[in-house]
Design brief:
- The chain is α+β, with helices and mostly antiparallel strands and 225 residues long.
- The protein has one domain: Glutaredoxin.
- The strands form 3 sheets. A 7-stranded mixed beta sheet has the order 4-3-7-6-5-10-11, with helices on both faces. The protein has a two-stranded antiparallel sheet with strand order 1-2.
- Helix 2 packs across helix 5.
């Protein structure tokens, strides 16, 4: 059983790393240029066409759209609860990001399952509670197979079901492993390949927040003119 688990883990990690290089649009992504008023950015920039709003169900069975993020930065990524290695690591790293930030700068963490047939809301809730019992800023999303496929297409996430004959799991879901950083308006501003140190994301968030605050202040003042 342990040998089978290691094989699945190796296969999924390999797919995640290779698919992250082969995703449509990745050829257009580039290491971001330094910000004008801050340190360099560690993430990758993507074409304007990546991302967008959607409607799925959260771990409580309630409708979810990007409006629920309430003007906060968010880190969004795709995976599934039976993932043996890549997804647990990504979730753990995301939580490290928030622990390194002051409360007012912490991001919303959005985990979208690519296995909606097994990952119903109650399954997602139990799974996410292993990482944060209070689910503070942590949201798991699911829906129909068609709905999830549509959202994955929006973010150019690659995924494929892989049957596992003889395994109790039945099948695995091979998937790309980018984490997408969304700004306060829900727009993808940067993306991070699997294995990016959480400190790189923290540095980017601080730099982006510093750059964005003056523009938010100007927008707020303009409403009173």
């Amino acid at each position: 059983m342990e040998k089978s688990r290691r094989l699945i883990c190796t296969m999924l990690t390999g797919f995640a790393l290779s698919a992250s290089l082969l995703l449509p649009g990745i050829g257009e992504a580039a290491r971001a240029r330094p910000l004008d008023d801050g340190p360099g950015v560690n993430g990758l920039r993507f074409p304007e066409s990546i991302g967008g709003d959607f409607s799925l169900l959260d771990q409580n069975g309630q409708p979810f759209s990007l409006a629920r993020l309430e003007g906060r930065y968010a880190l969004l990524f795709f995976g599934y609860t039976h993932c043996p290695d890549v997804c647990p690591t990504a979730l753990s790293e995301a939580l490290k990001i928030n622990r390194a930030l002051p409360p007012e700068r912490r991001v919303s963490i959005v985990f979208i399952t690519l296995d909606p047939e097994r990952d119903r809301p109650e399954v997602l809730k139990r799974y996410l509670a292993h990482f944060d019992p209070y689910l503070t800023g942590l949201t798991g999303l699911t829906g129909s197979v068609a709905q999830v496929a549509d959202v994955a297409k929006l973010y150019r996430a690659a995924w494929q079901r892989q049957d596992l004959p003889g395994s109790r799991l039945g099948y695995a879901v091979n998937h790309s492993a980018y984490s997408y950083l969304l700004d306060r308006r829900g727009k993808v501003v940067l993306a991070y390949p699997y294995g990016t140190p959480h400190s790189d994301v923290v540095q980017d968030l601080i730099a982006l927040d510093k750059r964005e605050r003056p523009s938010i202040a100007r927008e707020t003042l303009s409403k009173f003119k």
